[in-house]
Specification:
This protein is an all-alpha fold. Helices cover about 55% and strands about 0% of the residues. It has twelve helices and no strands. The longest helix has 15 residues, at about 35-50. The termini are close together. It holds the Pfam family Nitrate_red_del. Keywords: Nitrate assimilation. GO terms for molecular function: metallochaperone activity; unfolded protein binding.
Length: about 230
């Protein structure tokens, strides 16, 4: 299992099946392509996750990635928000996947970061690095926000940034993240609900609209396969 695929597996919602692959995941974290420091960081994250009760790990994942939008793993959330451009971006990304024989399941969203990493795991290294460079700013900001929230997931984003180019100033992004208002507090969630709970329009949503509810979890078993 490559480092990209491993990070995708570890970033995904931690299904119960994840714990069945402990030895494989820990072996992948020792990839010699990583620096000794990052091998240690990745191994420590994997062990920490796998030493955690699944219910607690799942609750922590939901608290970080499914509460508010700042830590969303849907990449276009950070680029297009709820604009109509997001629908076309989804279509274009699906087309890029299909061009290389990568088909999505019915409920999979193409801009979900763990899914993109699974795709990049199948592409040549230079091509994968080019894709990562295009999303490096988003991933770097996710790294900064996760660090600001004292989440161990920060290291996964940092390794992705380093895999892309390593040239981002994560310190500057961390300062930016520290100045952002939190969107995962009960007060912020209440405000968001008040804004979105009732929204009337003259037209029904078209088929290109992206769901705004909780992300459908993907199959961990599929991901962990070599």
């Amino acid at each position: 299992m490559s480092v990209l695929k491993l990070i995708g597996v570890l970033l995904d919602y931690p299904h119960d099946e994840l714990w069945e692959h402990r030895e494989e995941l820990l072996a992948a974290a020792a990839d010699p392509a990583l620096s000794p420091r990052r091998r240690a960081d990745l191994g420590a994250f994997a062990r920490g996750l796998l030493d955690t009760d699944p219910l607690l790990a799942q609750d922590a994942w939901l608290g970080l990635f499914d509460r508010g939008r700042a830590m969303s793993l849907l990449l276009f959330e950070h680029i297009h928000g709820e604009s109509r451009d997001r629908g076309q971006a989804m279509v274009d990304l699906i087309a890029a996947y299909r061009k290389h024989g990568f088909e999505l399941a019915a409920k999979e969203l193409p801009d979900y970061l763990p899914l993109l990493l699974e795709f990049l795991d199948r592409r040549p290294p230079e091509e994968a690095r080019d894709w990562l460079q295009h999303i490096a700013n988003i991933v770097g900001l996710l790294a900064a926000r996760a660090a600001e929230r004292h989440s161990p997931y920060a290291v996964l984003f940092e390794i992705l940034v380093e895999s892309a180019s390593g040239s981002l100033d994560l310190g500057a992004l961390r300062r930016r993240a520290s100045e952002e208002p939190r969107d995962d507090t009960p007060e912020a969630m209440d405000r968001l609900w008040e804004e979105e709970a009732v929204r009337f329009d003259t037209q029904a949503p078209d088929e290109s609209c992206t769901p705004t509810g909780p992300l459908p979890a993907r199959s961990a078993t599929r991901q962990v396969q070599p």
